[in-house]
Write a structure and sequence with these properties.
Number of helices: 20
Shape: globular
Structural class: mainly alpha
């Protein structure tokens, strides 16, 4: 079986138990793809809810009298602190309880929190609402990754993940597109006649409406049948829950992979969050375009390039694998990280709107390409009964790097070192280039152990 078709068996089980389960597991069924459809909608919705703020920087700063640093705390700390706290909680529940129940609860809760952002009347009320959204969204990755890995046979896991991982790019693009259109409509007074909505400020209206689709998605998830857990039965036919000692032993044994992966991929996540967080502001401040124009144009670019890139990534990995690289899932990430360094630095010398726009669009292709592949790699070499925990650790580290540090670091340097908000584009370029260089180093270090884990599967 190729590198795209291997699942790491649990340390305490016969190596052939996962193979038999995989052969018997129905894959590509209507139920499995309905699951992917609903989870992709949920992931899309989560990114709409977390990233719609990026287009509303100007009006929120004006209403609450904020600088870039305090605004960035809404983008980062308010969301990420709760996300980090709740990720291991939801990860453990996903390993031992109902993943479907976790998802329904979390999706409904974060949708209510997003709408509550539109009702905020102060900075701290908005901060609290963003905190609630972040804590609830922590449910998605550990539960969704675990349930996807059980709904499909191993050979189809990268394809399923590539569809699911379109969510950030669909969500990020839609947040900008519909946020821009709603801003234009609200600012033009076309919504003023509507009860309740017409009384809201444009940025409040965008938040309030952005939270509503999630309630429908939570209802759609009620019709999903949770798949049976694979590799969960012992040879005697009972069930096995991995102890903390067993989990620690696996992490220690394969620390060359897990340690470097948990540093390298979060560094590569920084451009994924930093570009959408600050690129609209760069285009607005540096080139004088309207928020509505940036929202629609950059939103369409992110939606199309990001989605197509992540969807095409399994074919790219297979092409690399045919060259003799069984470790193709991580090799693609490594190459993308290398290419991201000069591309990010090119933003410093962009002298017109369309050049900067083209650089940002190309960056979307690069930072999107390895996301489904790296997620698949982690799932495929991790035992079933610790996948939720392994995923939640991944969520923790990428959240610290991408959600918390990336937006705030750019804002801090802009406000307190350069003292010129027009230099935000330069700081964005430097931050992403340095992060991509660090990702290159650690992903290269992860490859040898990753190959050994594939051989041991």
């Amino acid at each position: 079986m190729t590198a795209l078709g291997q699942i790491r068996a649990a340390e305490d089980q016969p190596a052939h138990s996962d193979t038999r389960a995989d052969e018997q597991q129905p894959g590509g069924t209507a139920a499995a793809w309905y699951l992917i459809f609903v989870l992709t909608l949920a992931y899309t919705c989560s990114f709409v809810d977390r990233q719609v703020l990026n287009l509303l920087v100007g009006p929120i700063k004006a209403d609450f009298g904020l600088d870039d640093t305090r605004l960035s705390l809404l983008q980062g700390l308010a969301f990420t602190s709760a996300y980090i706290i709740m990720s291991p909680v939801f990860g453990r529940i996903a390993d031992v309880g109902s993943r479907k129940g976790v998802l329904v609860f979390g999706i409904a809760l974060w949708s209510i929190g997003t709408s509550a952002c539109g009702l905020a009347r102060s900075y701290w009320q908005l901060f609290a609402a963003r905190f609630g959204v972040g804590g609830a969204e922590a449910c998605l990755t550990p539960a969704a990754w675990s349930i996807i890995a059980d709904a499909f046979p191993a050979r189809m896991i990268p394809r399923a993940f590539s569809v699911y991982m379109m969510g950030p790019y669909l969500g990020g693009g839609l947040a900008l597109i519909f946020g821009g259109l709603l801003l234009q409509g609200a600012q033009g007074g076309s919504l003023s006649a509507l009860p309740l909505l017409g009384a809201m400020k444009p940025w409040q209206l965008v938040f309030f409406l952005a939270g509503l689709p999630g309630i429908l998605i939570a209802l759609m998830l009620m019709f999903v049948k949770e798949p049976a857990r694979r590799a969960a039965a012992t040879a005697s036919g009972g069930t096995h829950r991995m102890s903390p000692a067993e989990i620690r032993a696996i992490f220690r044994r394969w620390r060359g992979f897990y340690g470097n992966f948990y540093v390298g991929m979060p560094l590569f996540i920084i451009p994924l969050y930093a570009f959408p967080a600050w690129m609209p502001t760069v285009l607005i401040r540096k080139f004088g375009v309207s928020a509505g124009q940036v929202g629609v144009q950059y939103g369409i670019a992110v939606l199309i390039t990001g989605s197509l890139s992540v969807l095409a990534s399994p074919w790219v990995a297979r092409a690399v694998e045919r060259m003799g690289r069984r470790d193709s899932l991580l090799v693609v990430a490594l190459v993308a990280a290398v290419a991201m360094v000069p591309l990010s630095l090119a933003l410093i010398w962009a002298s017109d709107y369309w050049t900067a726009f083209a650089i940002a669009t190309a960056a979307s292709v690069l930072y999107s390409l390895p996301q489904a592949l790296s997620s698949s790699a982690l799932q495929m070499v991790t035992p079933n009964r610790m996948r939720g925990l392994a995923s939640s650790i991944y969520v923790f580290v990428v959240s610290v790097a991408g959600l918390a540090l990336a937006p705030t670091f750019v804002a801090l340097i802009t406000d307190h070192v350069f003292g010129d908000e027009r230099r935000v584009g330069d700081l964005l370029a430097i931050t992403c280039a340095v992060a991509a260089a660090g990702a290159t180093f650690f992903l290269a270090r992860a490859l040898p152990t990753y190959r050994r884990m594939l051989d041991a599967g």
